[in-house]
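Form P-L/3: holo structure prediction, ligand zinc ion.
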Amino acid sequence: MYPEERSRRLRTSESLRNLVAENHLDRNKLIMPLFVDESIRKSEEIKSMPGIYNQTIDSLESYADRLKEIGIRSVLLFGIPEKKDGEGTQSFAKDGIVQRAIPILKKRGILVITDLCMCEYTDHGHCGILKGSEVWNDKTIDYYGKIAVSQSEAGSDIIAPSGMMDGQVGAIRKALDSYGFENIPIMAYSAKYASSLYGPFRDAAKSKPSFGDRKTYQMDPPNIKEAMKEIELDIKEGADIIMVKPALFYMDVIREASLRFNNPLAAYGVSGEYNMILNAVKNGYLSEATIDEYIISVFRAGANMFITYFAERVMAREKGKI
Ligand code: PBG
Ligand code: ZN
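OUTPUT (holo model):
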């Protein structure tokens, strides 16, 4: 009570504010998404994601050098194959785009998390094998097992399944264990919503479904109890790290998951979040500080790690400071 309580006492200088801050920008906790694209000849900026480029295998060499130089510790890797087909066979090809990209990153000591899905690889753009016009759950998770093994053989450090099929984590765990990859962790996209914020990603990954949408497998935005159930199931099936995606419109889900579960929790700030914030900053309507406030808010909500397209920008700016 005034005058005994003076909250302003701890706000008088930047050093003091930093000393009492409850959360910090920490480079060890930022994960940079990364696209390698077999269908282009040289690296290409993604129109709806200024500053983010689809890399080729060649351009990845120097891009990986840059990531290492600015201190990026981990990436979430996506591949776009030259040839797509009904079964997404390039997703588990020995010489697939992701399989070839992994060693380039590993050589620089960067931790590689591989996204595991089929929508970038199928000609119909859905996240699995079709039966008629439906995605066939149980067939699809057999394929996911195969992809997980292939990514691990290529040197992936963490497998991150994003297809939202039932039983996917269990099927992947089983496949990995039976091939001797019992020490490869699974980062499960546990509560992944059918969000309208994925548009720019689908431009980048050329993965827009050719018919229908993803609402029969991804979660319905109004639900949070269901998210807790999805996370619980994934943990039971063997998920090591759990995830909530998107981040910005789903802070309540991040909060609730962080309070309820003891597994490390990742949040994914998706392409639409990047687009909204970056464009406001680029146009001068919001300041650069908005980006840091956005990132710290995700940690304050309870995430242990944050997958964000801003990782590179922030690290380049803060080089040596965080
Ligand atoms: C693939 C996948 C998507 C994203 C990550 N993995 C797209 C989708 O589900 O359509 C979205 C990421 C982003 O928007 O940044 N299943
Ligand atoms: Zn997918």
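COMMENT: Residues 14 and 20 are 10 Å apart (CA to CA).
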